Structure formats: structure tokens, C-alpha cells
Amino acid sequence: MNSTTVIVGASLAGINAARTLRLQGHTGSIIVVDADSERPYDRPPLSKQMLTGEWEPEKILLPAGKEDLDLEFRLGVRAKAVDLGARQITLEGADGTVANTAFDSLVIASGASARRLPDSAGIAGVHVVRTLADSLALRAELEAGPSRVVVIGAGFIGAEVASSCRKRGIEVTLVEAMPLPLERILGAEMGRVCAQVHIENGVDLRLGTGVLQLETETVDGVEKVVGVALTDGTTVAAEIVVVGIGVTLNVDWLEGSGFTLDDGVVCDNTLLAAPGVVAAGDIARYPSARFGRMLRVEHWETAIAGGEAAARRLLAEASGETPVVFDPIPWFWSDQYDRKIQLAGRPMPTDTCVVVHGSTDEFRFVALYGDGDRLTGVLGMNRPRHVVQLRALFEEGASFSEACERAATL
Amino acid sequence: MRIVVDFDLCESNAVCMGIAPEIFEVRDDDFLYVLDENPPESMRAKMEESVQRCPKQAISIAED
């Protein structure tokens, strides 16, 4: 392949696409664009080691971003539009300069941005955690030793931020609109276990309540948050509010350009979104034969695998080889307090959930999810060996009952 | 090739064990054990995959 490839997104999916293209014989120009002006970095530590102060930014730089791969980085540059017919992309530099860049092939890996509370822009003390700059800004305020942090949203980011604050000895109120944390991902039974983990670690957990409004005070012309009014009628005083209520996909630049946008960039089962255009990472929605539905997966490992697969898809298109189907087993981990939660697969919250090893009372267990006799998920808390061994059952096509039998032997 | 694990970074996610159980083993104590620090050349692709997929960037390959 000796042509120009533009990659939008220098995070995990984009940088791994670039690396794979180069190592697999792309000899042309590879331009990597990202609105973030930082060198490519890893996001999982942003809510953990970066917030606790254990790690410095240098430690989270992605190795692929430091390799000599002859990539042309355009950082702090935002994709504004793409013209598939003319094969060009419109880019806006940090200084506002807008220019078009021609491409032969395109990798869409523009990811997502943290969703914010409405009308919260410009209020001091209100944070999200998505970028390195976000994480450093929050960390600076945590270092000042606030008496209480209110975390809105008990998803994975919210839970990890709560955990990091507790490690610093800061009081935390964690607010979740749903009746249980992570219920939509892990189901009610495991949601209850996750709620208990927060409570055991001294978090003031408020479930089934939303945010009515932020309470603010203006001192010396600066509007600063002082509390959060909740829909249950209570108000929690807070010097810092962290909002972890999910993400918005960065698809604005693709609108009206001929792509199918439906909660992500709709791809085929090889991540091809249009001739010569692939998508990867948080933004890619693809049909999974394994799970029998369209999937869009926001996991770290899927971003790496997707970046690699998207690159190989372009190479296959160029060489005329048969493309490989992309259908990995989703897997992620989340570190909260001294617990490591890992999930392989993609269960529905209504699936059967059976604890097959250990006990939820000890917060050290393995649970399997099944839809009928189809294995849909393997969840572990502080049981990494079991999760990885049982994850292999997906590859073997094991049924739910076979998986339960196998788990008993581990 | 020699496998080097930075145990200060390793958090026992066991991804490497999923890729190459002949080389990496996370035991019941939740610690990672390297079963063969000098894997044969035929394992190189799996070792490189283990390096790339480690969530903590704790694995590296030394050539000596």
C-alpha cells in the first residue's frame, strides 16, 4: 500500500491502526489527526493512578505513539467535515485555520467526549474525566484537600473516581439515577454487589435519584459549585462535583457525508464503513454474529483490536485479499478500591446470572450469564485467572450449562 | 528472547495468560508467575501480542 491514509483519532484505536498499517507494509503517508493536543496516551489511568497522584503523565504515553513509525501527527487539529466523493477531509487547526487534506483511505477513530450536565459550563469545581487535561485539572483540586466530592453517575468512571477520592481520604457522595449501579450492564443482582462495595468503602451512596441542579456561589466574579440539589429533595454540599454520565460520540464531522450514523458509524462485519473507509474504537458499530446483534463496544481492548482490524481491512482491500471478520469477545476491567471487576462477553441485564465460584459476600467470586443455554457473560471480582480461563469458552462455543460445569473444575 | 515483567506495574489482569498460558500464569494468590522466561522463538508472535495487550504495559521483550 503506497497511498495517503488519514486517521482521525490518535487514541488507542487510531494509534493502533496507524501502527498496524505501517508494520504490515503501508509505505505511503499516514496522517494522524486528533483534537487533543497531547501525545497519544492511555485513558484507563486517568480515573485511577493519575487522580491518586501515583503516576505522572509521562507514564501513560502509549508505546505506539513513541515508536518510530514515520507517522505525521497533527495534534490539536479537529476534523470538521469529510467529502467521500472528492476524497478529502476538512481540518481545523488550533489557531482556527481551516484547510482540506486529500486522502486515499480513511480511518474513523474519533471516539467520544464526556457528556456534561446542562448549564454547567463555566462553573468552577465541576469536572468530567475523559482527557488528560480533565484528569490533571481534577487532580489539582483534589490535592487541595476538599472535604467532600460529589460524583454524579455510578458507572465505571464514576465508581473509579469515587474510589480514587476515597484513597485520598476524601469523603464521597455517589449519586446514581438508576435504582442500582451498573444494572444495565451487569443486571440487578450484580448491581447490588457493586453498590455494597461502595458502601463498604465508606461512600455515601444515593441510588434512584437524579440531579435537580447545581448550587453555586459567585465570589470575586467566579461562579463556583457549593452543592448539588437532588430530585429526592435533598441537597449535598460539595466543593467538587465530578460528572460521569456517559459519553457523546464525536460524529458531528461525519454528518451529511453519506455514512450511516446510528449510535455510531455503522460498519459491516469487517469494520468497513464505505469503500476505503473503516471505523474503530468507541465509535464503530458492527454486526456481531457471536452475540446476534449490532454491537458498539467502548472497551479498551476492543479499541486496540478494532484499530488493528480496521488497518488490516484497508490492507486487504488494497491487496485484494479476503477481509477478516471482526467479532472479538468483549472484555474489560475496572479497578474500584481493592476490587478488580472483569467482564468478558456481553450479557443483557435480564439474562440468568449464576455465581459459580467464591461468594459475593466476600467480594471474590465468578458469575456466569446465560440467555437460555447460550453463554453471554463471565463476570469476576478479584478472580482474574478464572475470568480469562472461562473467557476461552466463548471461542470454544460452549453452552451456558457446559460453562457452569467447567467453572466447577477451576 | 527473554520475557521481562515489571511487577510494580502488573495488576494481574491475566490478559497475557489468556494469550499464552504456557508462559504466563496468574495463580490463586492473584499474582502473575512467568513459567518460562526464555520462550522459544516460535512463541514470538504470542509474546508480542501479550506486550501489546497488557493493560498496564508491564511486559517487555529483551533480546539478550
UniProtKB/TrEMBL annotation, chain B:
User: Per its UniProt record, what Pfam families does this chain match?
Assistant: Fer4_15 (PF13459)
UniProt key word Disulfide bond:
no
Q: Show the GO MF annotations.
A: iron-sulfur cluster binding; metal ion binding
Keyword terms of this UniProt record: Electron transport, Iron, Iron-sulfur, Metal-binding, Transport
What InterPro entries does the database record attribute to this sequence?
Fe-S_cluster_ET
- Tell me if Transport is a UniProt keyword of this record: yes
Q: What is this protein called?
A: Unannotated protein
Ranked from the top, the taxonomy reads: unclassified sequences, metagenomes, ecological metagenomes
